[in-house]
Amino acid sequence: MVLTALRGALGFLSRLPVGRDADAWTAFAERPIAFPLAGYVIGALVGLPLLVPGPSATVGIVFAVGVYAVTGINHVDGVADLGDALAVHGDAAARREVMKDTTLGVGGALAVALVVAGLVAAGSAIAVLPARTALLAIAAEVGAKAGMASLVCVGSSPHDGLGAGFTTNANPWALAPVWLLALPAVFLAWPAVMPAVTALLAAAIMAVVVLRWARSNLGGVSGDVLGATNEIARVAALHAGVIAWTHW
């Protein structure tokens, strides 16, 4: 069932042609451990452009394009909706209503621009470091997916929808296996473990920040919150990893 859950995770979290069916989706929704497992696969794929020689700025752009070629843009929609909600002066109900609006506001446009710029900048920074620094892409992806899983485990959805489909099937006890499965990403660039440790830690911190904000301002964890967590945590993890690699 774990392999079925992984297939369901890859079908939801990426554009990989793994097929989508009810059994895979159900197995995925019931097993948060599938999030970090999918992160290893996706991270390995999105990190490939970082190994291609070229001007750092070009590598950064190709890296960002590669990320969305593999993962799709569904989660970016979550960033846009969360950005629009951040710009709203009102209660949780008002913010949730704005997030349902298909019109992109200034807050959403700015949020998406910052995330994409963050990806390009991270890719550009990695391009001028040793080739094995590209392994940070795996650590960042695993961390981002573990961050999503963490929200699934400890959060609750304010309404029926995608978020509820995950949160109602998980509990805080699932956090331990999620992060235990994420830990091997630390040793990918051995002996340079500190950058990957820092990347995972940054992803975890961003997940906590988004969770606290979502609870206070949206009433809980929705599908948009999960998607935004993935994008924000990835960028934070990449930059934290690069900083750690540069200094340690």
From TrEMBL:
It is found in: Cell membrane. The keyword Transmembrane helix applies. It catalyses: alpha-ribazole + adenosylcob(III)inamide-GDP = adenosylcob(III)alamin + GMP + H(+); alpha-ribazole 5'-phosphate + adenosylcob(III)inamide-GDP = adenosylcob(III)alamin 5'-phosphate + GMP + H(+). Its main location: membrane. It is a multi-pass membrane protein. Belongs to the CobS family. This is Adenosylcobinamide-GDP ribazoletransferase.
